[in-house]
Amino acid sequence: MSTDPRQERTLGQLVASATQDLSTLVRSEIALAKAEVSVQVKKAGLGGGLLAGAAVIGFYSVYFIFTTIAEGIEALGLPRWLSFLIVTVFMLLVAGVLALLGVRKMKTVKPTPEKTIAEAQTTVAALKSAAEHPGTTVPAPRPEWDRKDLPAVAPVTSSGNGSAASAPNPSRDA
């Protein structure tokens, strides 16, 4: 086997190249999915934190209600029941606002990686098209490592037999 990079690649090299390209494609899709999902997880975390804050304030408000009311009764001279009611309503309003903010934030979470799904569907459609109509799909450019020392060549067009790869290229074969 010659080391001339201008020779046609063997079937084994083509299969290895296709396997490598497919592996790179899958890794890219996984990286895109991770990036997309991580944004949604951060949104969910913030919404969950707000809901947890609402729950904590709601829970601890029970203890602070009684202390505040005891001080309020003495300072304001209001009836005991009214002091309890005022503090309870205030704490429940604070917990309600936090809960509302948390629920709104949780509604913006989209757990499906839409860009990844669209990209994968595009890839599947391209592969199906290439399988159904071989030779009509524009091939991807050769990788940089495979193009070194090759002369600039005009694109090879199909010669009517349906296969662009079988057409001889005089500038490459010279």
TrEMBL record:
<feature type="transmembrane region" description="Helical">
    <location>
        <begin position="50"/>
        <end position="69"/>
    </location>
</feature>
<keyword id="KW-0472">Membrane</keyword>
<feature type="compositionally biased region" description="Low complexity">
    <location>
        <begin position="158"/>
        <end position="174"/>
    </location>
</feature>
<keyword id="KW-0812">Transmembrane</keyword>
<feature type="region of interest" description="Disordered">
    <location>
        <begin position="129"/>
        <end position="174"/>
    </location>
</feature>
<keyword id="KW-1133">Transmembrane helix</keyword>
<dbReference type="Pfam" id="PF07332">
    <property type="entry name" value="Phage_holin_3_6"/>
</dbReference>
<feature type="transmembrane region" description="Helical">
    <location>
        <begin position="81"/>
        <end position="103"/>
    </location>
</feature>
<dbReference type="InterPro" id="IPR009937">
    <property type="entry name" value="Phage_holin_3_6"/>
</dbReference>
<protein>
    <submittedName>
        <fullName>Phage holin family protein</fullName>
    </submittedName>
</protein>
